[in-house]
Structure formats: C-alpha cells, structure tokens
Design a protein that fits this description.
Blueprint: H1 2-7, E1 10-15, E2 18-22, E3 27-30, E4 41-42, H2 53-70, H3 94-126, H4 130-143, H5 146-156, H6 161-167, E5 168-170, H7 171-184, H8 192-206, H9 209-219, H10 227-231, H11 238-250, H12 254-271, E6 278-280
Parallel strand pairs: 1-4
Antiparallel strand pairs: 1-2, 2-3, 5-6
Helix pairs in contact: 2-8, 2-11, 2-12, 3-4, 3-5, 3-7, 7-12, 8-11, 8-12
Bound molecules: fe (ii) ion (2 copies).
One fe (ii) ion binds next to helix 4 and helix 11.
C-alpha cells in the first residue's frame, strides 16, 4: 500500500497555462488535454491516502517554483540594469553594481514581510486560529530584523537608499509586495504561505556557500556587507523556516494547499519576470 501511494501521481491545474503531475517521488509538467488517460488522480479530494504529505507538498511547491522560473526562458530580454548605483565607485564592476541593486531589492521585500505577518497574526487570532496566528507571529519576529541587515550592508557600501528610492522605481519588488498584500486580504490569506515559500526557497537554492565566498571576494575590504545574504543563505535559519512552513502547509485542506501552490507559482514567476525593471523615475 505504501509503495503504491509513493508512486501515485496527482494532477493539478495551477493556472490556465500550467498543469503538473506530482507524487512523493517527483513531479513533471503535463498537458492536461493530451494526458487525460494517464493514471493521475485529481488533487481535489481530502480523503486521499497519502503516505508522506510533507514530501508530497514539498514536491508540489518546488515544482511551482521551477515552473515560475522556466516560464521566462523563451524570452530573450536583457534584465540587468545598466545604470550605476549613485554613491558607488563607477570603477566597480557590473557584479558589484548588481550586488548593490540586489540589496536594494531585498530592502523592499524584507520591509513588507513583518507588516503583512502582523496583519495576518491579528486576523487569524481574531478568527480563533491560534496555531496559524502563531506561525505568522514567528514570521514577524524572525523576519523583522532583516531589513535592518540590508540597511547596514547598504550603508557600509556607501549606497544612499533613500536617494535611490527617490530616483528609481523597482517594478518587480513593488509588484511582489502588492501581490503579497493582495493575497493577505483575499478570501484565502493562507496563500501568503506560498509567497513566503517561493522567496525563502529560492534564496536557499541560490545563496550557497560558494556564492558567499564569491561575494566576499567581490566586496574586498567591505566584505562584511553580506549580513542580508547570510541571513538568507542555505546554512541560515531560512532552512528551518522552509521546513516549518512545509509542515504547517501539510496539515491544511487540499483546497488551501492548492491556493498556496498557485501563489508559489505566481510569486516565482514575478520574481523572474524580465519585463519588470528598475526604472528611472
Ligand atoms: Fe528574511
Ligand atoms: Fe525566513
């Protein structure tokens, strides 16, 4: 019984263009129209027999992240920003400039997280859902100091973030924050867990020990300006956040899990959308 559950694939439609099949073992993108006869079960039934639901949910959400990235592979758009960061030595190379832009990006998203988490803590507490409320309280406590880390890094690198935010608009980050609030105020506010999962898991994937060493080399004498990066690296608390979140999501209804997966895909897609740019105001 156990091995058949392990091999059982479920199908889910995440948006009009994206359907996936997933099991406790893996996932694949499918075309629902041409694969109707496959032995996939619809992921809509709360009475499904699932051996390891955490593993199943993990595969579903990781597939959602990857499909959000893959969506843009066909578009050949130059996504990097050509402008120099005011306050940074123009002799510094493009990687250095991009690191500064990345910090400014994190400054925006890390600023929103404790505010949305506070809003949802109050909301779920008022609804009598203490367990969920406490999860958001934890997010607020853990994520609250992260914007300060970005501020310290930016200060050390000589980047005047207030000046930059008065000169530039950050379309991607603004759209992410707007989407986060939209989810929080929607009929399924638990879908914000999909937003958080996409951001945290993506950080874990990319912020490897190798990247930290390369960044320190890049920054030279200012190599302590990696506080924000360290807080979101694969060796950081983010790993526990992702695991805690998966455990919680696995206890939710199939309907909520489905909405969370849709939000994970949409968040990942926004994060990698090359058409959303940093623009001069
Ligand atoms: Fe964070
Ligand atoms: Fe986190």
């Amino acid at each position: 019984m156990k091995s058949s559950a392990l091999n059982q694939y479920y199908k889910i439609n995440l948006n009009p263009q994206t359907s996936i099949a997933f099991s406790e073992k893996g996932f694949r993108e499918i075309n629902l129209n041409s694969e109707l006869n496959f032995n996939y079960l619809d992921f809509i039934d709360n009475d499904l027999f699932i051996g390891n639901k955490v593993l199943l949910v993990k595969n579903l959400l990781n597939a959602s992240i990857l499909l959000g990235i893959k969506k843009w592979h066909l578009f050949d758009v130059e996504s990097s920003n050509d402008d120099l960061v005011p306050g940074i030595d123009p002799e510094k190379n493009k990687d250095y400039q991009n690191y500064c832009w990345g910090l400014l990006s994190s400054f925006i998203t890390t600023g929103a997280t404790p505010l949305v988490a506070e809003y949802l803590y109050e909301k779920f507490l008022a609804d009598g859902s203490d367990l969920i409320a406490n999860h958001y309280k934890e997010i607020k406590i853990e994520e609250g100091p992260h914007q300060k880390l970005c501020k310290l890094d930016l200060k050390e690198l000589g980047v005047d973030y207030q000046k930059i935010f008065s000169l530039y608009t950050f379309e991607k980050e603004d759209s992410l924050v707007k989407y986060f609030w939209k989810l929080a105020k929607s009929k399924e506010p638990l879908s914000t867990l999909g937003y958080a999962y996409a951001l945290e898991k993506t950080a874990l994937i990319f912020n490897t020990p190798k990247k930290i060493i390369a960044t320190k080399d890049l920054l030279g004498s200012k190599d302590s300006a990696i506080r924000c990066l360290m807080a979101h690296s694969s060796n950081s608390h983010e790993k526990e956040h992702v695991e805690d979140s998966l455990r919680l999501i696995s206890t939710l209804s199939i309907r909520s899990i489905t909405e969370i997966a849709k939000a994970t895909l949409e968040t990942s897609s926004k994060m990698h959308n090359p058409f959303l740019r940093i623009k001069k105001l």
